[in-house]
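Re: the request from the purification team.
They wanted to know what the chain is likely to look like in 3D before they choose a buffer screen. I agreed to run a prediction and write the result into the notebook, where they can find it.
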Amino acid sequence: MSIFSRPVTMPSFSNALPGRKNYAYSVPKTHRVLGTNLQGDYPENCEVTYFGMGCFWGVERLFWQLPGIHTTAAGYQGGITPYPTYEEVCTGMTGHAETVLVVFNPSKISYADLLVKFWEEHDPTSGMRQGNDVGTQYRSTIYPTNENQLALAEQSKIQFQSSLSDSGLGSITTEIKLAPIFYFAEEYHQQYLDRVPNGYCALKGTGVRCI
């Protein structure tokens, strides 16, 4: 992942890249680590959610290593351009964030547990950046897929903000809304840190615990 600066303001519908009607690349069907179906259909006892915490390489590994995770995938979400490519996302003219699809079994790991990982493992106060990665694609996001997840995410934000404030840190900038369409990233991004174990990982929390 590049550490160079990208645009930090979202494009408008009038100047966003036009995109296309389908993927410009092939998307793998199977998770290379978990051996599960990457694109669905997912088990009926599982739920789906999405998190953005900066560069999606480290974020995906963070979640696939947890118990109760059925599958994960890197992708693009929350923008304007349909079916963007990585190169287009990097221009800042699609509006997409790098996010990770997380399919989990709530009887083995709760949504609240996932939210704790989310808040503690990155800096949700940094706006359009994570560390040296600057740009709209690196913004912090929670994209729930149902009203219960949304309520839990909003409640956890309030609780974590209190902990951050007690530690002298700033306001949370995380974008929280029901999940917009998710576009799978290119194959070389999927489970990248399994392909390249010593590859770039920018995850770094604030040191504040989510109580």
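For the purification team: The first strand starts at residue 47 and ends at 53.
Please add any questions underneath this entry.
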